[in-house]
Task: inverse folding
Protein backbone atom coordinates (compact mmCIF):
# COMPACT_ATOMS: atom_id res chain seq x y z
CA UNK A 1 0.00 0.00 0.00
CA UNK A 2 1.07 3.56 -0.56
CA UNK A 3 0.96 5.61 2.63
CA UNK A 4 -0.02 9.27 2.38
CA UNK A 5 0.26 11.37 5.50
CA UNK A 6 3.64 10.39 6.90
CA UNK A 7 4.01 14.05 7.91
CA UNK A 8 1.08 13.65 10.33
CA UNK A 9 2.68 10.58 11.85
CA UNK A 10 6.03 12.37 12.17
CA UNK A 11 4.40 15.36 13.88
CA UNK A 12 2.58 13.04 16.28
CA UNK A 13 5.82 11.25 17.14
CA UNK A 14 7.49 14.60 17.86
CA UNK A 15 4.76 15.33 20.40
CA UNK A 16 4.71 11.76 21.76
CA UNK A 17 8.21 10.26 21.64
CA UNK A 18 7.04 6.98 23.17
CA UNK A 19 4.90 6.43 20.06
CA UNK A 20 7.93 6.18 17.76
CA UNK A 21 8.43 2.40 17.72
CA UNK A 22 4.74 1.40 17.58
CA UNK A 23 4.07 3.91 14.79
CA UNK A 24 7.15 2.83 12.83
CA UNK A 25 5.95 -0.77 13.11
CA UNK A 26 2.47 0.22 11.88
CA UNK A 27 3.94 2.15 8.94
CA UNK A 28 6.13 -0.82 7.98
CA UNK A 29 3.15 -3.18 8.05
CA UNK A 30 0.94 -0.86 6.04
CA UNK A 31 3.51 -0.16 3.34
CA UNK A 32 4.07 -3.92 2.91
CA UNK A 33 0.35 -4.79 2.96
CA UNK A 34 -1.72 -5.67 -0.08
CA UNK A 35 -5.23 -4.97 1.14
CA UNK A 36 -7.96 -5.61 -1.42
CA UNK A 37 -10.95 -5.45 0.94
CA UNK A 38 -11.82 -4.41 4.47
CA UNK A 39 -11.72 -8.10 5.44
CA UNK A 40 -7.99 -8.12 4.67
CA UNK A 41 -7.55 -5.39 7.26
CA UNK A 42 -9.81 -7.14 9.78
CA UNK A 43 -7.80 -10.36 9.36
CA UNK A 44 -4.66 -8.55 10.53
CA UNK A 45 -6.15 -5.91 12.86
CA UNK A 46 -9.03 -7.53 14.70
CA UNK A 47 -9.69 -4.38 16.72
CA UNK A 48 -9.97 -2.17 13.62
CA UNK A 49 -13.25 -0.31 13.35
CA UNK A 50 -14.77 0.67 10.05
CA UNK A 51 -16.56 3.93 9.33
CA UNK A 52 -18.40 5.12 6.24
CA UNK A 53 -16.46 6.14 3.14
CA UNK A 54 -13.77 3.45 3.56
CA UNK A 55 -12.38 5.00 6.72
CA UNK A 56 -10.73 2.76 9.27
CA UNK A 57 -9.80 3.34 12.90
CA UNK A 58 -6.62 1.52 13.86
CA UNK A 59 -5.67 0.93 17.49
CA UNK A 60 -1.91 1.24 17.85
CA UNK A 61 0.16 0.07 20.82
CA UNK A 62 -2.56 -1.77 22.63
CA UNK A 63 -5.12 0.97 22.05
CA UNK A 64 -2.87 3.72 23.46
CA UNK A 65 -3.08 5.55 20.14
CA UNK A 66 -5.75 5.79 17.49
CA UNK A 67 -5.18 6.44 13.83
CA UNK A 68 -7.96 7.20 11.35
CA UNK A 69 -7.20 6.48 7.72
CA UNK A 70 -9.12 6.47 4.47
CA UNK A 71 -8.40 3.41 2.37
CA UNK A 72 -8.72 3.39 -1.40
CA UNK A 73 -8.48 -0.29 -2.23
CA UNK A 74 -8.52 0.14 -6.02
CA UNK A 75 -5.38 2.29 -6.02
CA UNK A 76 -3.83 0.76 -2.86
CA UNK A 77 -3.62 4.08 -1.00
CA UNK A 78 -3.85 4.61 2.76
CA UNK A 79 -4.45 8.27 3.61
CA UNK A 80 -3.83 9.19 7.26
CA UNK A 81 -6.59 11.60 8.26
CA UNK A 82 -5.96 11.86 12.00
CA UNK A 83 -3.73 10.41 14.71
CA UNK A 84 -3.77 10.92 18.46
CA UNK A 85 -3.96 9.37 21.88
CA UNK A 86 -6.98 7.38 22.92
CA UNK A 87 -8.01 10.25 25.21
CA UNK A 88 -7.78 12.73 22.31
CA UNK A 89 -9.82 10.36 20.14
CA UNK A 90 -12.58 10.19 22.74
CA UNK A 91 -13.06 13.96 22.37
CA UNK A 92 -13.39 13.75 18.55
CA UNK A 93 -16.52 13.00 16.56
CA UNK A 94 -15.92 10.74 13.61
Result:
Amino acid sequence: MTLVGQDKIDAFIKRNAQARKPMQAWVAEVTNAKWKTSQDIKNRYRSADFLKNNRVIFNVKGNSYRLVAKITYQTAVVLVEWIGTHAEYDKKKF
